[in-house]
Amino acid sequence: MITIQNLSKSYKQKKGQIKVIDDINLEVAKGEVFGIIGKSGAGKSTLIKCLNLLERPDSGKIIVDGVDLTAISVNELRIQRQQIGVIFQHFNLLSSKTIFANVALPLTLQGKHNKAEIKTAVDEMLSLVGLSQFANKYPASLSGGQKQRVGIARALITKPKLLLSDEATSALDPQTTNDILELLLEINQRLGITVVLITHELEVVRKICDKVAVIDKGKIIEQGNAFDILLHPKEPLTRKLIIEEESDKYLEKVKHFYQFEKHPNKHILLLSFVGEATYQPILNIISNETNANFSILRGELDRIKHMPFGQLLIEFDGDEGSLEKACSIMRSMKVHFEIVH
Ligand SMILES: Nc1ncnc2c1ncn2[C@@H]1O[C@H](COP(=O)(O)OP(=O)(O)O)[C@@H](O)[C@H]1O
Ligand SMILES: [Mg+2]
Q1: pTM, rounded to two decimals
Q2: 2-234: what fold?
Q3: Confidence of residue 123 (pLDDT cuts 50, 70, 90)
Q4: Could you tell me the CA-to-CA distances from 169 to 141, 152, 172, 182, 213 in Å, in that order?
């Protein structure tokens, strides 16, 4: 669906020229929800702006559905852009226009003026996002979540194949974030629209992304399936973004509460289970086959998109032989583990 090849973009700043996007290559398959995560200033917004050529890259190709957007005329680009809807963190609605007029805007900009056709299209979109009764209201009277629903309706009115989202839920509270993510997932699944989103919120990745790429200083440093990246990130920065925010936070608490002290026979292990492995009685098996003891410090069972996963943080108390045996059992049962302390 999307191929990004050798994409680079620099900006002139006071300090001189800075490379904000540095030779990025990415593939997004049709129907995927693809998340791009990274720290503030990493280049996320610039990357997404390059995707529909809101920003023109210095070099590289952006191929959407077989068309290289960097190589076509302004007119052709205008047509291709109708295939790409965009939603924003701050919704970007026109406050002087009704909800109906906001959603209709992309059609009017395309030169469509048939009132009946516009009404049918807008009504369909407002119904999709659950805002039919708000057509004649103005943005100021809507909540943040409702405004984002209007933003989504407006983005989808040209029936795009691709939806780009720049931190669409970052201004919303957790419950509203959840509702909007559900809506995006429904749109992705029911309408088959490919979604590329950038976010700094792990919850977003966890809930709706199939794939994830991590961007740092304009480069993609790691990418893969969402559950691989979330459960066992490899790059130090990804670990910082993901593990520190999750397990290390608990590890700190655990150290504090249990006054865990480094002891040659004591280790803290982080076990991750995906899919079938989630339901195996792994600790029982280890306990039967070794003479180690353990205490569970933290346990979590959740889903990454539709895939069940579990994570257990345990204090393992046993000699070298028991630890080796436990590791080999975990390997054979395909339980991913890390000795974190
Ligand atoms: N129009 C611009 N002119 C100059 N510098 C810019 C411009 N847009 C972004 N930048 C710089 O590019 C870097 C990446 O910005 P951005 O893509 O917005 O990051 P993110 O969305 O990951 O926070 C930042 O250092 C930012 O200051
Ligand atoms: Mg940004």
Answers
A1: 0.83
A2: Rossmann fold (3.40.50)
A3: very high
A4: 19, 12, 5, 11, 18
